[in-house]
UniProtKB/TrEMBL annotation:
Region (Disordered) location: 572-593
Presence of the UniProt keyword Cytoplasm in the record: no
Pfam short name (any one): cNMP_binding
Topology with respect to the bilayer: Multi-pass membrane protein
Organism: Strix occidentalis caurina (northern spotted owl)
Name this protein carries in UniProt: Cyclic nucleotide gated channel subunit alpha 4
Lineage: Eukaryota, Metazoa, Chordata, Craniata, Vertebrata
MF GO annotations: cGMP binding; intracellularly cAMP-activated cation channel activity; intracellularly cGMP-activated cation channel activity; protein-containing complex binding
Domain Cyclic nucleotide-binding span(s) in chain numbering: 392-498
Length: 593
């Protein structure tokens, strides 16, 4: 039935591509005639696919018309279950699967000295069981193909079985104790350490999901360092046990408690790998070889740790610089120009305020790597609640605000800073997100009004309101009282948004006109004259359009007449050339008007 379904879908161009792929990839889905039984809870009919299949089968004999049945993802049974590699459940299971890997890397090497032989048998079997369960779950883990998550059970199984990860996983579960009885002991479980890539994958995914990746990098570095010291300590104890515990000052002392032996070995390995020194002098050739190898590994490890710490610090500095500007270049510039003192302190206080209040001014630079749609969604989720509190936008549609949010630029003004001056050409308008600003009179001291959260200003100089006597000039001085957090919108960005939403432009012009009436800067006569001039201009544009249409028709008629005249002249020349004066041929020039 599956092959018939594939053949029918291949010959039916009306079936949508999604339904065709589903039918071709799932062996349990077929094209059934109308009226056939349909399994409950497992399949459902998709209207688009059914319409396409019915359209391509309309010419077949019989009243039955095929339709496509596709099992839904949410209603699928255990056979259709697939683990999303980017989902939360996969992350949780990966965290659990990393525990037996870490257990084997810690415990197996401890048995080299024989002090843990006969213990941890239950934990060994538990870790092997988790290994098997991990392999079973990886058979049901989806993968991306052409950017789409593949959930087909057969394809996910084949993808895992053909990957190098399966070979490593299978090699980690080979029972060496049964295959080679002579190697029974700690070496029989050495292959369990081949699952180390699973542990590294878990660490990498934790780093991408945490809010503090640099702290996790340091924790991972400390874990690897402790694991290296642990291995060196266990190998040191195994060599000491072979040479004889307590036989000289270099080997591990013959303590009665295993914990005391391990702590001494761990302390000795820490001194070696940390390049601290102060270790006993070796006396035997085995001791010299082990100490030399330890010092060489310590040099490499110390270089790796130093490079990793430097990388973490550099990443922290780069991430910090991406959000907050560095005041050092500005201060150096002021000192180089001989300007400092009060102005330098203002610059320092402004930068300190940004960091203390977590107000990053470089939001666009931080989001520039995101796609346009995702960048707009991130900006909307951050700034849309604050933008809805602005009185101007309370009646506007959500689509206008979502188009407006990505164009906003946050700006922070310090105490006493002038946001705009009277008479300046207006190129931006501002929305108050937080803080207070004073509107000053002509004397520059008297406060006419105080603007707070949710208010806006500067829009009158950006929109062309008929009768505005101020033109595009600022009508007042506005000064920040304290630290004010504003949204800035340029004239070009506002024009782009208002061009797509005419009703928003009309609302903005109406509010600007009311404000101009209150301040006495709206000339009613000039507004009426401007409206009349605009009406006449539109009438002239309409008349000009009509004249252009008439001229185009006349030109077309002239061209058609010239073409006909040219054809008549051509036929007359042919008749004169042939020497015939009789009636013209059928369809000739005489038949033309």
């Amino acid at each position: 039935m599956a092959s018939e379904a594939r053949d029918m879908v291949a010959c039916c161009p009306g079936v949508p591509g999604v339904a065709r792929d589903v039918v071709a990839s799932r062996p349990g889905v077929a094209l059934l005639p109308r009226g056939a039984g349909e399994p409950r809870g497992r399949r459902r009919c998709q209207d688009a696919a059914s319409a396409g299949a019915a359209a391509c089968a309309s010419g077949a004999e019989g009243p039955a018309q095929p339709r496509v049945l596709v099992p839904p993802r949410s209603a699928g049974g255990p056979r259709d279950w697939t683990l999303d590699p980017d989902g939360d459940w996969y992350q949780r299971w990966l965290s659990a699967a990393a525990l037996p890997v870490l257990y084997n890397w810690v415990v197996i090497v401890c048995r080299c000295g024989g002090q843990l032989a006969g213990l941890w048998l239950g934990l060994d079997w538990a870790s092997d069981g988790l290994y098997l369960l991990d392999m079973g779950l990886r058979l049901h883990t989806g993968f991306l193909e052409d950017g789409v998550l593949v959930r087909d059970r057969g394809r996910t199984r084949r993808h895992y079985l053909r990957s190098p990860a399966f070979r490593w996983d299978a090699a980690s579960l080979v029972p060496l104790a049964l295959l080679c009885p002579a190697s029974a002991g700690p070496a029989a479980r050495a292959n369990r350490c081949l699952r180390a890539p699973r542990l590294l994958e878990a660490l990498e995914r934790w780093e991408t999901r945490t809010a503090r990746p640099n702290a996790l990098r340091l924790a991972r570095l400390m874990l690897l360092a402790l694991l290296a010291i642990h291995w060196h300590a266990c190998l040191y104890f195994a060599l000491s046990a072979r040479l004889g515990l307590g036989t000289d000052a270099w080997v591990c002392p013959n303590a009665t408690r295993p914990l005391r032996r391990y702590l001494h070995s761990f302390y000795f390995s820490t001194l070696v790998l940390a390049t601290v020194g102060d270790t006993p002098t070796p006396r035997r050739k085995e001791e010299f070889l082990f100490a030399t190898a330890g010092f060489l590994l310590a040099v490499l490890g110390f270089a790796a740790v130093t490079g990793s710490v430097a990388s973490v610090i550099a990443n922290v500095s780069a991430a910090d610089a991406a959000f907050y500007p560095n005041p050092a270049p500005v201060l150096r510039y002021l000192r180089a120009r001989g300007v400092g003192g009060r102005l330098a302190r203002r610059v320092t206080r402004w930068h300190r305020h940004l960091r203390a209040q977590r107000k990053p001014p470089a939001e666009r630079e931080a989001l520039r790597h995101l796609p346009r749609g995702l960048r707009a969604e991130v900006a909307a989720s951050v700034h849309l609640p604050a933008l809805r509190r602005v009185e101007l936008f309370r009646g506007w549609e959500g689509g206008v605000l979502r188009q407006l949010v990505p164009r906003l630029r946050p700006q922070v003004f310090g105490p006493g800073e002038v946001v705009c001056r009277r008479g300046d050409v207006g190129r931006e308008m501002y929305f108050v997100r937080e803080g207070r600003l004073a509107v000053l009179a002509d004397d520059g001291v008297t406060r006419l009004a105080v603007l707070g959260e949710g208010l806006y200003f500067g829009e009158i100089s950006l929109i062309n309101i008929r009768g505005n006597t101020a033109g595009n000039r600022r009508t007042a001085d506005i000064v920040s009282i304290g630290y004010s957090d504003l949204f800035c919108l340029t004239k070009e960005d506002l024009a782009e948004v208002l061009a797509e939403f005419p009703h928003a432009r009309a609302a903005l012009e109406a509010k600007g006109r009311r404000l101009l009436l209150c301040t006495g800067k709206l000339d009613a006569g000039a507004e009426a004259a401007a409206a009349e001039a605009e009406r006449r201009a539109r009438a002239l544009e309409g008349a000009l359009g009509g004249l252009q249409a008439r001229a185009a028709r006349l030109l077309a008629q002239l061209e058609a007449g010239a073409h006909k005249l040219a054809r008549r002249v051509q036929r007359l020349e042919e008749r004169l050339r042939d020497g015939r004066g009789g009636p013209p041929r059928k369809g000739g020039a005489a038949a033309e008007p």
